[in-house]
């Protein structure tokens, strides 16, 4: 006999548990539990007293991290433990009660999930503390990277307030030149008073190399244009400089923390993937390898690469009926955002290193009318297939040409660069999707 225990986990209040047999009949009334071994043991002992030979399976949603201690204890007691995606529970609950959502109903829905949709259940290898640490680390890395980008955008916005166009001309706000200019040269009147030669020496000293004449003329023109906007006393340059200095202090703290997190993630990655199979993928280095590994700790959770594709999220929704099939549907975005980010960043580089992915990218722009970001998402989907294959087979990735012949990295990069896209096509894709310039031939 099999018994299924559905536990609707709560982050603050008590959990709710429901128990059904292998026919879906409720065998115990709904009860409340705490994240306490005594509560769990009392429930399990009650089940085994009534049904001594029963095989017990506990089903729950991955709510926060509260499911982890419960899962570990259930496994120690000899129970099977499975997780189910919240979307699946939502769909089945609406089938039972369309206009109701209660904790007891959620628990009953979870208990019956193995009978209704057993393929929706999955186990998790992240019960290993190293996998837990890696998953936390890659989520923190993605969050810190986003905060770094936001602070840089804030700095550029304040710089453009004082000297429009300066941020775009200087580039990365974290560079030596940007720090030098933004720290003492946000007052256009003061810069013009220095004169071009003195300012050129200041810029050359910050760059630690000579300044080209054309670039410096554009830089000086930015300050001349800004001086026309801001008259003497109109711009509180000192306050703006202090504000930017505070942003730089925050930026330096975030960058230092980001560096530490990445080092820790890399150490965990090397312990969990000592042969470097994930890092053998094109476009995957020391930063993205931990994220991709954390995104697929157990390849057997997914029956095939198509299921993993759907989990990662950068694939379009399917809308097909009869002979009609909708185009341009929105992507599912089903998986974690940090995994989609890692796949997208890796795909952006991989299309320049792998001839097969480069061909896919080229076909998306030339034949299918996609714009750049859409094409990179398509490459990311194919990269997810390759990630699934190397994790499932336990082997490194082999670069191949369009005919499947193995290649070394140098040859693969050279072949990938041959799949070019004309600038006219890129401009057409940016301006209006699906429209080509008049003089562009395709196919």
Automatic annotation (TrEMBL):
Swiss-Prot/TrEMBL GO biological process terms: DNA transposition
Domain Transposase IS116/IS110/IS902 C-terminal: 278-362
Domain Transposase IS110-like N-terminal: 5-162
Pfam family, one: DEDD_Tnp_IS110
GO molecular function terms noted in the UniProt entry: DNA binding; transposase activity
NCBIfam families: transpos_IS110
Name this protein carries in UniProt: Transposase IS116/IS110/IS902 family protein
Species this protein is from: Thermaerobacter marianensis (strain ATCC 700841 / DSM 12885 / JCM 10246 / 7p75a)
């Amino acid at each position: 006999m099999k018994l299924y225990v559905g536990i609707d986990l709560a982050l603050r209040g008590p959990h709710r548990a429901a128990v059904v047999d292998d026919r879906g009949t409720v065998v115990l009334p709904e009860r409340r539990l705490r994240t306490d071994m005594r509560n769990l043991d009392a429930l399990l002992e009650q089940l085994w007293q009534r049904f001594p030979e029963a095989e017990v399976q506990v089903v729950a949603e991955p709510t926060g991290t509260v499911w982890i201690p419960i899962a570990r204890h259930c496994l120690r007691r000899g129970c099977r433990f499975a997780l189910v995606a919240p979307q699946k529970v939502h769909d089945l609950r609406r089938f039972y009660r369309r206009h109701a959502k209660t904790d007891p109903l959620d628990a009953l829905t979870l208990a019956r999930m193995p009978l209704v949709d057993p393929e929706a259940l999955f186990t998790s290898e992240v019960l290993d503390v190293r996998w837990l640490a890696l998953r936390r680390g890659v989520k923190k890395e993605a969050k810190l990277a986003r905060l770094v980008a936001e602070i840089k955008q804030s700095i550029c916005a304040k710089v453009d307030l004082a000297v429009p166009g300066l941020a775009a001309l200087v580039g990365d706000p974290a560079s030596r030149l940007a720090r030098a200019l933004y720290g003492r040269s946000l007052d256009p009147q003061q810069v013009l008073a220095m004169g071009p030669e003195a300012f050129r020496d200041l810029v050359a000293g910050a760059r630690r190399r000579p300044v080209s004449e054309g670039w410096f003329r554009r830089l000086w023109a930015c300050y001349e244009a800004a001086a026309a906007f801001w008259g003497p006393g109109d711009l509180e340059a000192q306050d703006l400089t202090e504000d930017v200095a505070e942003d730089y202090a925050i930026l330096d703290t975030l960058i230092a923390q980001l560096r530490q997190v990445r080092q820790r993630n890399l150490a965990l990655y090397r312990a969990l993937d000592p042969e470097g199979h994930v890092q053998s993928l094109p476009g995957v280095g020391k930063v993205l390898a931990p994220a991709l590994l954390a995104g697929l700790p157990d390849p057997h959770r997914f029956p095939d690469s198509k299921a993993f594709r759907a989990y990662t999220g950068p694939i379009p929704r399917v809308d097909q009926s009869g002979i009609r099939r909708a185009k341009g549907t929105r992507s599912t975005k089903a998986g974690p955002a940090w995994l989609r980010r890692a796949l997208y960043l890796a795909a952006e580089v991989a299309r320049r290193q792998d001839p097969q992915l480069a061909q896919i990218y080229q076909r998306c722009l030339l034949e299918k009318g996609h714009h750049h970001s859409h094409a990179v998402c398509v490459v990311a989907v194919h990269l997810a297939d390759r990630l699934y294959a190397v994790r499932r087979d336990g082997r490194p990735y082999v670069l191949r040409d369009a005919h499947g012949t193995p290649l070394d990295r140098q040859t693969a990069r050279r072949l990938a660069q041959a799949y070019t896209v004309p600038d006219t096509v890129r401009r057409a894709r940016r301006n209006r999707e699906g429209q080509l310039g008049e003089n562009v031939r395709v196919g």
